[in-house]
Design brief:
The protein is 43% helix and 22% strand. It has helices at residues 14-27, 49-63, 82-94, 112-117, 131-149; strands at residues 2-8, 33-38, 69-79, 99-104, 120-123.
C-alpha cells in the first residue's frame, strides 16, 4: 500500500516544512509515502470561489487513477480518534488497497465532483486550520496511526 498526501496550493512553507518532512520520513518506515503539491490554476486570483473549486477539481480528477482510494479532508467529514484512524488505515491495508490518496483541497475546499469521486471524507476537526498546518497535522496523525498499529511507544493513552 502506498500513501499519497496531496495538497492544493503552494509548496511547504518554512515554518512547518521541517515538521512535515520529519513525519513523512517516519511514515516511510511503514509505507511508501510521498507528497504532491497541486498548484492552483494560473488565473486563480481572478476567479470566483465556485469557478476556482471547479478548476482545482478538474486538476485533481485528471491526476486520479481509477483504482486510487481517495480520502478527502473536509470539515464536514467523519471524525476519528487516533485509534480509529489507525484501524481505518489497517483496514485499507487488509483490503489490499494499493494507492491511498489523502487530499487537502484548496482555500475554499473541493468541488462537488471531487467529493462525489471520494471514497471517504475525513474531518481532522470542526475547527478550520491553515493549509500548511493541516499538512503537518495530517502527516503526524498518519505516523501516529502507524505506531499504534505496531504497538510502539509514540502514542500514549
Amino acid at each position: 500500500m502506498k500513501l499519497n498526501l496531496w495538497s492544493v496550493g503552494k509548496g511547504h512553507e518554512g515554518h512547518v516544512e521541517e515538521g512535515i518532512l520529519l513525519f513523512t520520513k517516519r511514515i516511510a518506515n511503514y509505507y511508501p509515502v510521498q507528497w504532491q503539491i497541486i498548484a492552483t490554476p494560473k488565473q486563480a486570483a481572478a476567479m470566483n470561489e465556485s469557478d476556482l473549486k471547479k478548476a482545482e477539481g478538474i486538476l485533481i480528477l485528471n491526476q486520479l487513477k481509477k483504482d486510487d482510494y481517495l480520502i478527502v479532508l473536509d470539515e464536514r467529514g467523519q471524525q476519528f480518534t487516533s485509534e480509529k484512524l489507525a484501524s481505518f488505515i489497517q483496514q485499507c491495508a487488509n483490503e489490499s488497497k494499493k494507492n491511498i490518496i489523502f487530499l487537502i483541497g484548496g482555500a475554499f475546499g473541493v468541488s462537488n465532483e471531487v467529493l462525489e469521486r471520494a471514497d471517504f471524507t475525513w474531518s481532522l476537526s470542526q475547527l478550520v486550520f491553515p493549509h500548511q498546518l493541516v499538512r503537518m497535522i495530517l502527516a503526524e496523525q498518519i505516523y501516529r496511526a502507524c505506531t499504534i498499529n505496531k504497538n510502539e511507544k509514540y502514542h500514549h493513552k
